[in-house]
Each structure stands twice: as structure tokens, then as C-alpha cells.
Write a structure and sequence with these properties.
- The complex is a heterodimer of chains A (559) and B (233).
- Chain A is 38% helix and 17% strand.
- Chain A has 15 helices and 20 strands.
- A 5-stranded parallel beta sheet of chain A has the order 6-2-1-10-17, with helices on both faces. In chain A, strands 18-16-11-19-20 form a 5-stranded mixed beta sheet.
- Chain B contains 7 helices and 7 strands; from the N terminus they run ββαβββββαααααα.
- In chain B, β3 and β4 form a beta hairpin.
């Protein structure tokens, strides 16, 4: 039986696995954590699809969804890809429902939908405020069925160290079993990278601690380009202190943003004056920062999210997770008190450059979900579109990869053994180092630098300074010192392996950002482009490529 | 800021015959969680300390451990409420791999044993009609994060290694709730001596669940619903 290796067990990875298993090819899922610990589990608010189940959404259509998505992304999305996602959306959500995904329901018994920022109709289908948890568990359950039938295998707590390629062809991977540190090569007909985003290159992120971007770097190191890495989403409402996500669903259900004087300040800013809390994330996040800089923030750090007027019953029914998190992590009950919120890094719009079939530049290597950039989100993702992208393009990648794998010859293992030797050297360099800098100093400086220089507002001087610091840290990485020599669940080694990828991803974000000048106005002549970065043996090379605007033309965004 | 002593159970299979406690002294800010403390120790005092983590926000179920004797998620447990001496050890009823990391395969094997999936028919573009009332019946059955705390705090799982345990049975209750034409017989392996009939009603699962779920109550409901039927053939 032909085999496809999937790196990552989140929604994109499992969606790919089910598609592969259904086509008669075997899927092997490698994940550094148990798949149900993937960051997909934390998605809260919903998944967009033009189901027309909400009374205000009767006129919704996939075309309307597409236009909202393109406008939300400031016309930097590839429009054919957006069209595919929006057309496929309803079908995939229905399929998920048939698998038993416990969506919330309308009074008529249909899948419930709520409004999300940047959408002209309420189209985010939701399972209370635990939509990612519901979806990931449902997909994993179906994977258990395929596993019984021998169509899917899981390699939990295997850390993938490299994607092995020769010439223009991907041949497999090398991975380290975290239980005993054995490094093994695995040949495969095709490989899919579905490892999620890189939020943890920033100090303030909603992301799980495992979201280091290492998976993105796996493709990058193997020779495929990264696209639009400078497009990093900052979520407007993360809990002050821990940056735990407070769902956009909270505003979708009617929550207000207030400054320290209790005023709904978004009305003071022209680009959010009419849609207020329902403007897209980039605009709301920017205006919160502007308000804090103007002096409207509390302790100059945060603003308030007010849900009190929704009433305890509605909060408990629609936003029970938000209530639980606020109580547990901030000691605040949103039914009675204001939630302190600030913008925080949330989503990596850029990623491994793939086309509409999820193919990378390397034959046999595919990518899907947040790790990839098929470019459905452009410069700013709309809430509710990440789960959709993971679900839809996970399946697309699964289909492409299984078709490819069926025609691919299984490469002789001798080649892989050679690669294994190289990898052992790499790891023993980490294991034998004794005198260098602590990796934690590098982690901390990288995260602080990214937050300060590649945050919501950026300028040339800051970005240049940031890039200099990251380049220095990349040099220092080679001399880091580890002291745990154990082979069983050596977490110090795990973090050091991740750091190598994180640093290069951070570097790519800065290089991409420097490609765009800091003008407040638009310049479509020069900047209606994708930035593309190649690793080039450690001296990254930047180029630009055209954006697909086959459906609608750019215009100024107001909400 | 407050001073703490953490007593942490250590075990490295290659080096140690049995687990032992090691003490760490540290100072933490007011809103620090136990997970924050473990990371502080790991980064500053002892890089060999092993513990699992992922979301740090109480949704992924990675960081279950015994904290001052009770099973909790480290990420959502504030250190300030625990006194100055905090004792941490791995969860019970599962073999230790290293320090606070246990091998959960037994737990997952039980999860798989109840066949936790709907056999569905994908034809048709419309969703099933499920009234809000019917949907409400799933509340308490679908929020489980499979952290294993119920399994580790249950008195029966420690005694009967064939007992499916609370989390698997909660999952079973969820699949009995939504039939959609599939045969209930598929689920009967869970309704045997090592399934619902082994629950001794200690309600430890309900007491310790970080999501306030009650597998014990779900077990009662399965028994009411299926009593007799499981033994028919």
C-alpha cells in the first residue's frame, strides 16, 4: 500500500489523513504531542460557511463569503484559492456534522451561526465557544475508525527533525522518538506538513507553547519557499497577563470594547466607526493600541471587554469557555465584571508557499493549514476562516498527496540511512555542547525582539534593528549549551531543536516586513504582491510574485 | 512575590530504581500557575525535569499531575492558593516514563475500546435536524479534554486493570445519545463487567474533573438506558 506521512495531528493533519485513508492509501501521522493536544483544540468562536441558517443570513452565499474574505485580507489573497475554500466550506461543515460534531443549534434544529468581524452575514457555525475542541475530537474519532481498519497509523511524541529531499523530490522524513531518542528515517510516497503556526516566536501570543513554527522551517530547510511571512495577525482581545484568547464570538454575541472611561472608543476611529466591535481583527487591534497610546488604556496596558449586558444566561449558553477561562486565569466573572484585554499575536497568515492543490516547490511535499500559505487570508485573516482553511485544505492536501504517492516509487532506504547519519551528527552536536550560551536567553531575546520590532506597528529602523538581533542569535545558536544527557523525554533537547526553526522563521518575518515600506496609504502598484523567501543555505533570498485578483479588484477598506 | 518550596517527584528509568523527591526553592509572582513554576525550575534550576505541556490554557489536557495530593491541571492551578510547600507527583494508575510524564497508552486503549466514532452516511447536503433540546442532552458529554485525571483518581481503575474507566465510559454515553440509525450493539463491549458495571460510585471522577463533568452520572445513565439489553445475546 502506498503511504503518505503527515507531520502534525491538528485539524489540517487529521482532515488530510481521513481523505488519504478514504482513497486507499495509508496515512502515517507524526506528532510531537498526542494529536488531541494540538493547538486546533483551543479554537473557540466558529467556522465560516454560507449555510444560511441565521435569520439575518438568508441572503448569504459562497460568493459573499469570498468577497468578505478578500476585503478582510486587504486584497492580498489569491482569489481562486479563496473561491475554492468558500465553495467547499458548506459541504465540509455538513460532512463534519454527519461525523457527529456537536454544533450548537438554531431553534429549527439547524447548525447555529453567529456574526464575526468582517462578515456581512452571520456565518460562523459554532459549538458553543469550543468549536475547535468539538471539531478536532470529531475528526480524531473518525481517525480511530480508520485506525481499526489499518488505514491510519499514529506516531505520537515523535519529533520530526527533517524533511528529506534529493534533487526536486521529497523522499520522506527523519524523526526522533522522544521516548528513547532513537532517530529513524521514514521513506514515504509523499509528505504533508500540517504543523500549525509560529506564534511562539513572539512574547505575547495566544498560541499553545508548542507553536514554535518548527514545522514551517522543516519545509524551508528542505528547500521550499515561504510566502507572506510578514503577515502576522494580532488578536484584539487576549486576556491581560496570560494572553489567553478571548474569542471574537464574545463580540459577535454583542460584547463591547471600552476604554478606561467606559466609552466604546472604536467610534472615534474612522475605519471602525460604523462596524465598531465587528470590524476585522487588524483594524480593531490597531485601534486598541492607538487608544492605549492616546491615554485611554487602563494602566497604559489594556482596555476592557464588557459582556455584562448579555446577561448570565446567554453567557453561560454561548460563551461558557470564555467565562471559565476568565474566572480561572484572571479571577473575573464576565457576567458581573469587565474583562481586561489587550492585543496579542494570534495567527501566522504566511507559511510554506503552496498552490491551490497544496503542492510546494518540491515534488511529493505538500503543506496545509496554518503552516502553509495557500494565500486565502491575504494580509489579515477573518475570524472563522482558520478552522475552515484547515478543514478544506487539509482534505485538498490529502487528495493531492495520495494521488502523488500512488504513482511514486518507494525510494531505497539506503539513501535515508545516509541522511540519518547526518542527523545524528546534528543532534550529537547539541548533546555534546558544554560551554555556550543558554538557549533560554536566545528564546527570550528573540521573542522580545519580535514583539518590539515586528508587532502591530512597524517601521524600517525597528525592523532593521530586529533583523540584526535575530541574525546574531542565529550565530549564537550554534554554540548553545545543553546539560540533560538523558534519552527519555529530554525536553531540553526538544526545545533546542525547535529553536533552530523558530529563529529562521522569525528572520523570514522580518525580511518579509522589510520588503514593505511603512507608508500609511496604499500603493498597489508596488505592494499588491506576495513576498517569497528562499532559505538558500542560510542566506535567505527575497523575491516578489503577483497576487491572483481574478474575481474582484482592490479598494480601500472601511467598516 | 512569594517564596515557595516545590517538592517534585523525580524518576529516570535509566538511573533510578524508584522515584524520589527533590526540592526546589523559588520565588513566584502573584498570578503564577504551577505550570509557570515548573517552567521556571526547568529553565533556571534543573533542565532535566520532565513534564508535558501544550496549550497552557486549560483546554488541551496535557498537564495533569498530582498537586498536593489532588489531581489537577498544572496550567490552571494558581500557586498562591496552595501554601508555601507544594508537592508534585505524576498521576496515579499509569506507569511513569520520566518524572511527571506517564505512559497514557492504557488510557487511550480504553478510549478506543468503546469504538468512539459515529458510523455515518455522508450522502445528502443537508444537516441532521437536532433540536436545541436534543443538543442540550449532549452537554456534559462532549466537553471532555481526555486529560486522564478521572482515570487516575478512580479507585477502581487502580484495582481492575481491565476496567474501562470514567473517561471512556463518558465517551460511550455520548455515542449512545446520538444513534442516527447505527446499531447499538456496536457499543455493547462497554456495557459489560469491565464497563459500566464496575463503577463503584465513588464519584472521585466528578470531584476531580477540571471541566466539572460527571462520568459517574453518565455511567448511571448508561445503566438505566441499557440494563438487560447488553446480556440479551
Amino acid at each position: 500500500m502506498a503511504e503518505v506521512i503527515i507531520i502534525g495531528g491538528g485539524i489540517a493533519g487529521l482532515s488530510a489523513a481521513l481523505e488519504i485513508a478514504a482513497s486507499g492509501v495509508k496515512a502515517l501521522i507524526f506528532s510531537k504531542v498526542h494529536p488531541l493536544r494540538s493547538h486546533s483544540v483551543a479554537a473557540q468562536g466558529g467556522i465560516n460557511a454560507a449555510l444560511r441558517n441565521h435569520p439575518d443570513g438568508k441572503n448569504d452565499s459562497w460568493e459573499a463569503h469570498m468577497i468578505d474574505t478578500i476585503k478582510g485580507g486587504d486584497f492580498l489573497n489569491d482569489q481562486e484559492a479563496v473561491a475554492l475554500m468558500c465553495r467547499e466550506g458548506a459541504k465540509r461543515v455538513m460532512e463534519l456534522e454527519k461525523m457527529g460534531c456537536p454544533f450548537s443549534r438554531t431553534p429549527e434544529g439547524r447548525i447555529a451561526q453567529r456574526p464575526f468581524g468582517g462578515g456581512v452575514f452571520p456565518r460562523a457555525a459554532y459549538a458553543a465557544d469550543r468549536t475547535g475542541h468539538a471539531m478536532l475530537n470529531t475528526l480524531y474519532e473518525q481517525c480511530m475508525r480508520a485506525r481499526e481498519e489499518g488505514r491510519i497509523d499514529f506516531y505520537d511524541e515523535w519529533h520530526v527533525l527533517s524533511v528529506i529531499a534529493s534533487g526536486s523530490k521529497c523522499l520522506g522524513i527523519a524523526a526522533r522518538n522522544m521516548r528513547d531518542s532513537e532517530i529513524k528515517p521514514f521513506p514515504a510516497g509523499a509528505v504533508i506538513i500540517a504543523t500549525g503556526g509560529a506564534g511562539r516566536i513572539y512574547s505575547h501570543s495566544t498560541n499553545a507553547l508548542i507553536n514554535t513554527g518548527m514545522g514551517i522551517a522543516l519545509g524551508y530547510f528542505a528547500g521550499v519557499s515561504l510566502k507572506d511571512m510578514e503577515f502576522v495577525q494580532f488578536h484584539p482581545t487576549t486576556l491581560y497577563g496570560t494572553n489567553i484568547l478571548i474569542s471574537e464570538g464574545a463580540r459577535g454575541e454583542g460584547g463591547w470594547l471600552l476604554n478606561k472611561d467606559g466609552k466604546r472608543f472604536l467610534s472615534d476611529y474612522p475605519d471602525s466607526a460604523s462596524s465598531m466591535e465587528m470590524a476585522p481583527r487588524d483594524i480593531v487591534a490597531r485601534n486598541i493600541i492607538k487608544e492605549i497610546r492616546r491615554g485611554g488604556g487602563v494602566e497604559d496596558e489594556y482596555v476592557y471587554l464588557d459582556l455584562r449586558h448579555l446577561g448570565e444566561e446567554k453567557i453561560q449558553e454561548r460563551l461558557p469557555g470564555i467565562r471559565e477561562l476568565s474566572i480561572k486565569f484572571a479571577g473575573i466573572d464576565p457576567a458581573k465584571e469587565l474583562i481586561p484585554v489587550q492585543p496579542g499575536q494570534h495567527y501566522t497568515m504566511g507559511g510554506i508557499d503552496v498552490n491551490i492543490k497544496c503542492e510546494t516547490g518540491l515534488n511529493g511535499l505538500f503543506a496545509a493549514g496554518e503552516a502553509s500559505c495557500v494565500s486565502v487570508h491575504g494580509a489579515n485573516r477573518l475570524g472563522g476562516n482558520s478552522l475552515l482553511e484547515a478543514l478544506v485544505f487539509g482534505a485538498v492536501a490529502g487528495k493531492s498527496a495520495s494521488e502523488y504517492a500512488e504513482g511514486a516509487e518507494k525510494y531505497p532506504e539506503a539513501f535515508l540511512k545516509e541522511s540519518e547519519a547526518g542527523l545524528k551528527e546534528k543532534t550529537s552536536f547539541l548533546m555534546n555542547s558544554r560551554t555556550g550560551k543558554s538557549q533560554w536567553d536566545i528564546w527570550e531575546e528573540m521573542r522580545k525582539t519580535m514583539m518590539e520590532t515586528a508587532g502591530i506597528f512597524r517601521n524600517r529602523d525597528g525592523l532593521t534593528k530586529g533583523l540584526n538581533i535575530i541574525s546574531r542569535l542565529i550565530g549564537e545558536y550554534d554554540g548553545i549549551s545543553l546539560s540533560d544527557r538523558g534519552g527519555v523525554m529530554n525536553m531540553e533537547l526538544y526545545w533546542a531543536e525547535e529553536l533552530r526553526g523558530s529563529l529562521r522563521v522569525a528572520e523570514a518575518v522580518l525580511i518579509g516586513a522589510l520588503a514593505r515600506e511603512d507608508f500609511p496609504g496604499r500603493d498597489d502598484e508596488r505592494f499588491l504582491k506576495h513576498s517569497v523567501i528562499e532559505y538558500n543555505s542560510g542566506s535567505p533570498e527575497l523575491s516578489l510574485k503577483d497576487v491572483d485578483v481574478s474575481y474582484c479588484s482592490p479598494a480601500e477598506r472601511r467598516y | 512575590m512569594k517564596d515557595y518550596t516545590f517538592r517534585i517527584s523525580r524518576f529516570s528509568p535509566a538511573r533510578d530504581a524508584t522515584p524520589y523527591f527533590r526540592e526546589y526553592k523559588l520565588r513566584l509572582g502573584d498570578s503564577s500557575t504551577v505550570l509557570d513554576a515548573l517552567f521556571y525550575i526547568f529553565k533556571n534550576l534543573d533542565p532535566t525535569l520532565g513534564f508535558r505541556f501544550s496549550c497552557r490554557g486549560s483546554v488541551c489536557g496535557s498537564c495533569a499531575m498530582k498537586i498536593n495530593g489532588g489531581h489537577r491541571l498544572a496550567c490552571e492551578t494558581q500557586a498562591s492558593g496552595l501554601g508555601n510547600l507544594i508537592t508534585i507527583s505524576p498521576v496515579s494508575n499509569l506507569p511513569v516514563i520520566k518524572d511527571l510524564i506517564v505512559d497514557m497508552e492504557h488510557f487511550w486503549k480504553n478510549y478506543r475500546a468503546i469504538k468512539p466514532f459515529l458510523v455515518f452516511n455522508s450522502s445528502g447536503r443537508e444537516e441532521h435536524i437536532v433540536s436545541p433540546h436534543e443538543r442540550k442532552r449532549l452537554n456534559g458529554l462532549v466537553e471532555c479534554i481526555l486529560c486522564g485525571i478521572c482515570f487516575s483518581s478512580c479507585p477502581v481503575t487502580g484495582l481492575d486493570e481491565n476496567y474501562l474507566g470514567p473517561a471512556a465510559l463518558l465517551k460511550l454515553a455520548r455515542f449512545l445519545e446520538k444513534e442516527r440509525g447505527e446499531t447499538r450493539e456496536r457499543l455493547y463491549p462497554g456495557i459489560t463487567r469491565h464497563g459500566v458495571w464496575s463503577c463503584r460510585k465513588a464519584y472521585n471522577c466528578q470531584e476531580s474533573c477540571p471541566k466539572n463533568l460527571s462520568p459517574a452520572k453518565a455511567v448511571r445513565n448508561i445503566i438505566f438506558k441499557t440494563a438487560g439489553k447488553a446480556f440479551r445475546k
